[in-house]
Amino acid sequence: MKKGKKSPRRDFAGVRYVFFVGILVGATLFHVWQKVVMARVAGLINGTQLRAEDLGKEQVKLLAAVAIKKTPAFIERVAVERRAQPVVLHVSADIL
């Protein structure tokens, strides 16, 4: 064998080594990417859960307000207040 030529077997070992390192780097990058995605999803889930809690509290308040407005005493009070207010009719100038 001459000094200037490399053996084909040695070239193949170098390619295998580069291929193996590439696979390891790719697997590491994929793992890190998965962790970043999972952290982002966890943050979105947490925000959604907090929003759902707030909406539940708001729903309870709205249901209580509806229940209060359906009581006969409230309806009677609104009717009396509206009866006491003068009725104002707006007449358009086009009619006259």
Topology:
Elements: H1 8-69, H2 72-84
Question: Would you write up a description of this structure?
Answer:
- With about 100 residues, the protein is mainly alpha-helical.
- The protein has one domain (about 10-85).
- The chain contains 2 helices and no strands.
- It has helices at about 10-70, 70-85.
- The longest helix is centred in the middle third of the chain and has 62 residues, at about 10-70.
- The protein is rod-shaped, with a radius of gyration of 38 Å.
Key words describing this protein structure:
0% strand; 96 residues; mainly alpha
Report, as a whole number of angstroms, the end-to-end distance: 117 Å
**Low-pLDDT segments:** none
Q: Considering DSSP H and I runs of 4 or more, what fraction of the residues is helical?
A: over 70%
Structural class: mainly alpha
Order of helices and strands: HH
Count up the domains.
Answer: 1
Q: Give the overall shape, derived from the CA principal axes.
A: rod-shaped
Radius of gyration over alpha carbons? 38 Å
What's the total number of strands? 0
Structure described in brief:
This protein is mainly alpha-helical. Helices cover 78% and strands 0% of the residues. The chain is built from 2 helices and no strands.
